[in-house]
Amino acid sequence: MPRIFLLNESTACRIAAGEVIERPVSIVKELVENSLDAGADRINIAITAGGIEAIEVVDNGCGISQEDTPLAFQRHATSKIKSAADLDDIKTLGFRGEALPSIAAVARLSIKTRVPEKNEGYQMVIKGGQVQQKGPTGCPVGTMISVQDIFFNTPARRKHLKSKSTEGGLITDLVYKLALTRPQAKFAFKHNGREIFRSPGSGKMMDVLASVYDVRTANMMLAVNGHEDGVKLEGFISKPEISRSTRQQITVAVNGRIVRNAAVNMALEEAYRGKLTVGRYPVAVLLIWLPPDKIDVNVHPAKMEIKMENEEQIKSLVTTVTGRALRKTDLIPRQTKLPPSSEPYKLHFPSPGAQYTLPQRSITSVHIDKGEANDVGVVQNVTAKVSTVPDLHNTTVRQQSTGPALSADSKKKSANSQESVTSVIISSAQLAEVDGDYKKYPEFPDLQVIGQLMNAYILAQTRDGLFIVDQHAAHERIMYEKYFCNLITTAPEVQYLLTPENINLRFHEKELLKEYRDNLQAVGFVFEDFGQDSFLLRGIPADFSPGQGEVLIADVVEAIMERGRASDAENKHALAALLACKAAIKAGERLSMEAMQILIARLAVADEPYTCPHGRPTVVSFTRRELDVMFKRT
Q1: Structural domains of the chain, ranges and CATH numbers in brackets
Q2: Where is the segment annotated Disordered (predicted)?
């Protein structure tokens, strides 16, 4: 057994940094929380390259005295508590005394600070935990901290950071949340020298909502207020018209501290039950106030998680207060984005038993020279061959955009196929004869539809057994392969909007769209820059309704934020899967016999017909023998 040694201060600080400083946004959080604890009401934040290269936070708080500044960089040194008893009465955001030494241990940090009583301030420069320079300096009252060369001595941590735009987006989102929870403070935020956000500091949360989102979104927020047995709740929640695909825009603060709390999220979602579709979440800012001795904030190194003594009471209060606000408001959606004469695109299927015709839509089967593909499967050179396959949707007029991968002859074929309409009887075997050099179609059974179960599953049979097809998963697989093909061939189907849509974006959202512009255009988005905080959306993928543009863009941005740094192939898969899920038929939609047969016929010619892009099965089967055994016929 090796002997036990006490770790030296440098090693201990780097270990602590691994717990407290996960990424650049962690540094910004710790520094701004210190500024707020110092009584600052003006905080300027500047970052370079997503915070990876540099971070600077300047405040007008009370500052740190010359005597105390060196102590601030010792582990477990803090002015906010003195004994263990004080942990039951925490009124500040910071208290552990680990933030500054942890940051200084993994970066080059400089601090200039001055208290009001002194005519001069104090400066320190620390690199990797070692003091390089210190002494008096001239500076205004308050504190300025600059952090550079982040994780220079922990390359594994730096290597696993996400892209600059993603890391910058996380910081931007944090600044927005801080401004929302502290409307009385003025925040100014710069990225690469450009100011992208400034909060009014008026003390009114509605003003901050308008600056974080936009005036239209702010006007669709509902005020919530309530209190019960010493617990107070205030804030704003969105009407169901404003929703997101993740919980990222739900901001929860307890006693001024931004926290992650699953119980509060569940209580909020309970109030929206039946008002939002599955997988959609509201925009919300909830400020909860309760006695300090009722919470334990010392359960997480970064202080993002807390334990609340009266959690069930708080959950009940959140559900009751937010539910009451929703019930008292007119929740009829206002379709202000659509021109009066336009109608949303809807799925249309022939009625059962009626004679029907299917428009021939051109889809692309791709021939790939295997020698031109790299080791991660990203296609370098492709040639496209156009063949006609009946489309499941019988749609309104759309414009088709063809990219450079299609030859002039192929474009001509595509245009002709769009115009032709042929009455056909479809079987899986017939569709499997579609020409394609790239894929060898799987041996998918030739299924005969016999009905629909619970408006979610298609029942089909062969002479050998019963097959149950998940209509959403099946259509999702079909649409995924279509979008993924578009990403390779850059030949999207675009629905151009009659009236271009001006969409307001936050800075990091706009930067992400620019970064992924090529992929977005390849699947059918057409947009252009339209000023500092917005862009003009001119076209969307042809499978969506004109009114879905803004929601689609918001969902795409959130999906990119969640994924962070990934390979090009992974990004293509994620984008194609997201759009496929949103474009696919949903469980609960009633389909005609003809539509179900078409769906199964198109599934039969898919590359991977047996699972959806997320890995769920599209079809399950019972053989005749298995059915006989169930009914004890053998």
Answers
A1: 9-200 (3.30.565.10), 213-327 (3.30.230.10), 494-583 (3.30.1370.100)
A2: 392-414
